[in-house]
Amino acid sequence: LLEKAVKVDGIDLIGRSPLFYAVRTGNLKDAGILIDAGADINLSDKYGHAPAHVAAIKTGVHDQKQSDQFFKILQFLKEKGADMSATDYRGRTVLDCLNFFGKRKLE
Fold first, then answer.
1. CATH homologous superfamily, domain 2-100
2. What residues does each domain of the chain span?
3. Four-CA torsion 89, 73, 34, 7, nearest 10 degrees
4. What are the helix (H) ranges across 25-105?
């Protein structure tokens, strides 16, 4: 993406950035590249979902390997400074989403 001159914080019609989509597809490598290039780790879409919300929600997928990958991404985002107390349009924090969808806790 960066080689094609995509803005690291460019957003689509619903406010989703390249980092959002990298996280949504489980691509930790691209997420890291985007963060290192200056992507706003807490940029949220029109629903208030930041990339960390997406990772937390996706830990609820039924495939354990995929669930673990999204949990790993969430841990990475936290280490990089993602706001775990950010709320979405329903007032749910990232940790609320993790508990509800993934039935997990983040240390």
1. Ankyrin repeat-containing domain (1.25.40.20)
2. 2-100
3. -30
4. 28-36, 51-58, 64-79, 94-97
Give me the tens of pLDDT residue by residue for the chain, a chain 107 residues long.
455 656 888 888 999 999 999 999 999 999 999 999 999 999 999 999 999 999 999 999 999 999 999 999 999 999 999 999 999 999 999 999 999 999 999 97
Number of helices (H), then strands (E), belonging to the chain: the values are 5, 0
Asked if 44 and 15 count as a contact pair (C-beta separation under 8 A), the reply is: yes
Q: Report the predicted TM-score, pTM, of the whole model to 2 decimal places.
A: 0.91
Question: Taking a C-beta distance cutoff of 8 angstroms, is the pair 43, 17 a contact?
Answer: yes
Task: Fill in the amino acid letter for 99.
Answer: N
For residue 68, give every residue at least 6 positions away whose Cβ sits within 8 Å of its Cβ, in sequence order, or none: none
